[in-house]
Specification:
The chain is α/β, with parallel strands linked by helices and 224 residues long. It is built from ten helices and eight strands. The protein is globular, with a radius of gyration of 18 Å. The chain binds zinc ion (ZN).
Length: 224
């Protein structure tokens, strides 16, 4: 009680450098994180499942993602959503008359309980505040807990994620005519995005692609 009362008068600290700030992260950290922003994020918007990645999964951006998830600062997720939304609007990747339904990639309920929030959902909320697209937080449900993808080869990743998701019951009964835009924090090999897309497409739902804050795919770095 006392703490929440005091917090009205005390400034918050930047979760990255602990210096006082009134923003989600301080101006200095924001500048450092933004130095990992891609100059040409349009390059990934191609192929069967196009994706938009805001920045490179490295340095201060990588640290900010870890702080968001493991030190539990959901406000960084919302900030990422704003940045991603601004980039999305600048690029004009789809026709302006299309307003896709935005769906965050879900965490398994147990994991979300432990963390207290889903970082992709926080990003999707920020993204929709900028773009004014409709948000469907529970469009997808993670029905199976999966291992962390780190250290798994592509085949193991595919096996790991197989049948891990399900469509929300309202989507099962009435598949939307409007296309879907997926949101996640990191794009690695795209295994999760492809699995989810397959599930949506099976119901005749069109998936435009996936937007993420960071990617580390080495193949992609070469053409940056
Ligand atoms: Zn800072």
């Amino acid at each position: 009680m006392l703490k929440s009362f005091l917090s009205l008068f005390l400034k918050d600290n930047c979760p990255l450098c602990k210096r006082p700030t009134e923003d989600q992260i301080c101006r200095d950290c924001s500048r450092q994180v933004k130095s990992y922003q891609f100059k040409n994020p349009r390059q990934f918007w191609q192929g069967d499942l196009p994706f938009l990645a805001w920045g490179k999964y490295d340095g201060k951006l990588k640290k900010a993602i870890a702080t968001l998830k493991y030190d539990k600062h959901p406000q960084i997720g919302e900030l990422f959503g704003y940045w991603l939304g601004e980039t999305w609007q600048e690029l004009g990747l789809i026709k302006t008359n299309i307003k896709p339904i935005v769906i965050p990639i879900p965490l398994h309920s147990q994991k979300q309980k432990e963390r207290g929030f889903n970082q992709a959902e926080m990003m999707a909320k920020g993204f929709c505040q900028i773009t004014k697209y409709p948000l469907k937080v529970k469009g997808l449900i993670r029905i199976r807990a999966t291992e962390a993808m780190f250290g798994l080869n592509p085949q193991q990743r595919q096996e790991n994620i197989k049948q891990a998701f399900e469509l929300d019951s309202s989507f099962q009964k009435h598949p939307p005519q409007t296309p879907i835009l997926l949101i996640d924090d990191i794009y690695t090999t795209g295994t999760t995005a492809k699995e989810v897309t397959k599930l949506l497409q099976k119901k005749g739902i069109n998936v435009l692609g996936i937007a993420v804050i960071a990617t580390k795919a080495p193949l992609i770095e070469k053409i940056t």
